[in-house]
Amino acid sequence: xxxxxxxxxxxxxxxxxxxxxxxxxxxxxxxxTKVINFVHANFxxxxxxxxxxxxxxxxxxxxxxxxxxxxxxxxxxxxxDNLLVFTQLQKRGSSPAMVMISSMGLWIAYRYLxxxxxxxxxxxTSKNFVSYGRITYSDIxxxxxxxxxLSQAFIASMVATILVVSSLYLILEKTRMGRAMRAISDNATxxxxxxxxRNLVINLTWFLxxxxxxxxxxxxxxxxxxxxxxxxxxxxxQVFTIGFIGGLASxxxxxxxxxxxAFMENIGIAFLNTYLGVPVSFRPFLTFIALLTTxxxxxxxxxxxxLPYRFRKRGLSQ
Amino acid sequence: xxxxxLSTITVPKEPGPTLKKxxxxxxxxxxxxxxFVIGLVVGxxxxxxxxxxGAAPTPEKTVYNIGFTxxxxxxxxxxxxxxxxxxxxxxxxxxxxxxxxxxxxxFRSVILDDATSDEKALQNVxxxxxxxxxxxxxxxxxxxxxVVKSYADNNKIVIISPSSTSPTLAIxxxxxxxxxxxxxxxxxxxxxxxxxxGARKLIVFFRNDEYGKAFADFLEQNFKxxxxxxxxxxxxxxxxxxxxxxxTLASRVxxxxxxxxxxxxxxxxxxxxxxxxxxxxxxxxxxxxxxxxPHGAGELLTSTVGRFAxxxxxxxxxxxxxxxxxxxxxFKRVKSRFGIELGVFCEHLYDAIKLAxxxxxxxxxxxxxxxRNALVEVAKTYYGPSGWTMxxxxxxxxxxxxxxxxxxxxxxxxxxKDVGVFERGSIIFTEQAYP
Lengths: 318, 435
Fold this sequence. Notes:
The structure holds 2 protein chains of 2 kinds.
Chain A (H helix, E strand, L loop, with lengths): L4 H29 L6 H19 L4 H29 L4 H30 L17 E3 L2 E3 L1 H23 L1 H11 L1 H6 L4 H24 L14 H10 L5 H26 L6 H15 L9 H11 L1
Antiparallel strand pairs in A: 1-2
Helix pairs in contact in A: 1-5, 1-8, 1-9, 1-10, 2-3, 2-4, 2-8, 3-4, 3-8, 5-6, 5-8, 6-8, 9-10, 9-11, 10-11
Chain B lengths: L1 H12 L1 H6 L5 H22 L14 E9 L6 H24 L4 E9 L4 H13 L4 E3 L4 H14 L2 E4 L14 E3 L4 H14 L5 E6 L2 H16 L5 E5 L7 H14 L3 E5 L2 H11 L9 E4 L12 H10 L2 E5 L5 H14 L7 H18 L4 H14 L1 E2 L2 E2 L13 E9 L2 E11 L2 E4 L6
Parallel strand pairs in B: 1-2, 1-3, 3-4, 4-5, 6-7, 6-8, 8-9, 9-10
Antiparallel strand pairs in B: 10-13, 11-12, 13-14, 14-15
Helix pairs in contact in B: 4-13, 5-6, 7-8, 9-10, 13-14
């Protein structure tokens, strides 16, 4: 038993919640739209900053309002990205690599746009938004259960994760929209020929993915002690690693990826530190190892094999 | 046949409707952009004082550029944003003083953001040098100063850092100056503070970088002299979150039975660590002492951190000449003009800018070597918000005092407050921070 194990366990669960909410939309958006989307980092940050601006400028302390607005704003932002950039490039016959590079460009542009916004808000309020402290919300409780201190962030992210996973399941399995999304991710051309409005479904997928990720960003504001315009950027390594473990195709494997990475980063490093004396600063390296192992053992896109891989195999066999 | 028919129908039809479906007209937007750029150039040519050809009765002022590489984003961004305002005030003061002394000169600031990153700081120094700038204020962090040092020395660029404190950079005869004392002094103040407050079994939790490692080593030495062995726990910098590291710290505190934690951090990492520590029972029941890094960071003024600070009676040290009227004056001016309060190193930055300006004037030419020699002389007789600025042989502030800060509850919420001073080897509290 590692000393202080309860805190480590709480952190482990907390991170499973965060990573699930952050990476499921990444996998969902890739398998439906075939865009490796670096703007995903901005979705997290813009979600967080919707809550930060609401709190700092308007004095909002309701996480429900913040999450709702973040969902709509960032969902809209994702649809706009698709309409103005990704779709345009794809129509002009750009390769997936080119679309990915354009998403990197957008990622950087969005990051600096947020710096501009924080400066404008700073000008009007004299508050520092470049690094904002943890927000305490009025509509979530924090619970103490025996040894476990369950913070606001823990309760909120647990509820959000259950909601996200169950609603994604219901949407994908039980609704026509979900069936259409799955059809497009399996074979877009075939789906289109059979009458599925491809553009509409893709736009709705972007809206859903942007929105869910943004809700994760809002949750982050109740957890982190310092929210910065690069909050999402520094998490992108973990989120992509988890996505790759899921092959950017399987939502179930992505969730398992979230558990693996959360385990390594919390329990794994605590174990290594206590029993083998490995320094704590070794932690980010563990994620790199996971990423490299996944990519080397299961090319080209991770443990799920990835969609292009499946298509290529089919293409060869025909 | 079918295939051929399909392709002949679909191929020519596809591009037509898709292009029409565009939500905007590409040519129109391109035209707009081009006219905007041309408009900008023409507008600048007409209205710019230098190019406009308007009557200029006064003789042309000599313009001196002072370069800045500041942490406007990244781990020191909280304080960086306050520094930006200090630069504005200092440059204005410098210009009005120079005019009062009859110099027909104008100092201008060229500010670049280095994102608290080593590589970016070097890029900034290179690009400022390429613009012909020979005096650069910043970078902020010791690791950044270390990276730019050889480039600055080779090209004779005077670097004045207002906040690099690592003792490993106290090197004589180079082009690096620091308007703040090295952490060799602060380690003494911080260890005295912790010892005087009853800490006997400590864990030093520190940034695994130039600043943190050197500070931790000096703390270790200072405690050894008091007969205490400290335990050291480094953490990786630049992470999005430190919950896992804080859990490890809690387990170390538990297993070693420590009574105090000393945290050596910057802004964002420090705020993150303390916010997580506030949730841990183990860490809420030991004393906490902090370096100067997180002072001034707004993230520390939340209710979570404020309550924690009061519970663990959190104290920090920072370079400060307490009770200096020039500092009080600067504090009031920044507060009334920008609505923000000065944080750590603001006064050192202000003095760095003033020194740079006067050194340029004293040198009489915009040349790195001449400015370096003049800087040493100017600093001997200059007294500013950070006190007397004279440099020691290594180019660091020779006389550095240290103050004690705390996070106190006020009617306007939580605030940083200077509550004590390090004098003649002991800490003297000037007021009570916690009930």
